[in-house]
Amino acid sequence: RAGDPAAVRDWVRAARRIVVLSGAGMSAESGVPTFRDAQTGLWAKFRPEELATEEAFRARPQFVWDWYLLRREMVAKVEPNAGHRAIAAFQQRHPGRLAVVTQNVDGLHQRAGSPGVLALHGGIMEDQWLDPPRACCTASPPQAGRPPRCAACGNLRRPAVVWFGEMLPARELAAAEEAAAACDLMLVVGTSGVVYPAAGLARATRGRVVIVNPHESDLDDAADAVLRGTAAALLPGLLEE
Ligand code: APR
Questions:
Q1: Among the atoms of ligand 1, which is closest to the Cα of residue 104?
Q2: How many Å lie between the centroid of ligand 1 and the Cα of residue 34?
Q3: Is the CB of 71 inside a 6 Å radius of any atom of ligand 1?
Q4: ipTM of this predicted complex?
Q5: Dihedral of alpha carbons 161, 164, 170, 171, sign
Q6: What are the pLDDT digits (tens) for 192-211?
Q7: At which positions is substrate bound (predicted)?
Q8: Is 27 in contact with 190 (CB distance < 8 Å)?
Q9: Which terminus of the chain, N or C, has less C-beta within 10 A?
Q10: pLDDT tens, residue by residue, 8-37
Q11: Which atom of ligand 1 is nearest to the CA of 192?
Q12: Nearest by Cα to 99 from 83, 88, 108
């Protein structure tokens, strides 16, 4: 169902409430590696169960911490791309009309100026306590280390991202489900659509579904239109006046 960008542009103009559901492909043109692209994806080089699970972190805290440190340093060096900027500019021109729901942890939508980003998988630049913090943990700043830890009880800091098998933040997920149910157009940008519940939002929405992705994705069958192109190349044309 190859889509026509001009028709999608008209759908954007006519839509009262738009949701952008973004995945790693949204940030590919900023230089952030995706997860499942054949050669370049992170999961082509590393095994997610060895790095992106609580069990892996408890087994090898320094190894996992260092991997996120590496990704954090890389994300700190990149910039939002024309796709992120086109979304933020649209939100600026039409307050409250477009909501961003992202699976990305890179914070690039936020850095581009998008307000109220619903980050379903957390943020890589933040960290949180591994175990529920006690008075000692919050009494003084964590002791520096890889990972940092509570000097009194040894509680570890961990990246504030959602690992495989973990629950998504309830507030963000509820808000995303609400936005998906209420929108009349959902732009699904740069996601393979294999991870739920995020991908489920594209199947639950009442609105028209448009996919922006240079390759096939698991959500193509749910789409009203598929635009075979990249985020930075297509979004400005779709969203600019
Ligand atoms: N523009 C748009 N889409 C792109 C671009 C681009 N420039 N480059 C690649 N893509 C597409 C790929 O074709 C692929 O379909 O982006 C998608 C990236 O898919 P994944 O790497 O699987 O990333 P994502 O869908 O966000 O993964 C979901 O899985 O690993 C976990 O928690 C992690 O949030 C992540 C989740």
A1: 34
A2: 5
A3: no
A4: 0.99
A5: positive
A6: 999 999 999 999 999 999 99
A7: 68, 71
A8: yes
A9: C
A10: 999 999 999 999 999 999 999 999 999 999
A11: 15
A12: 88
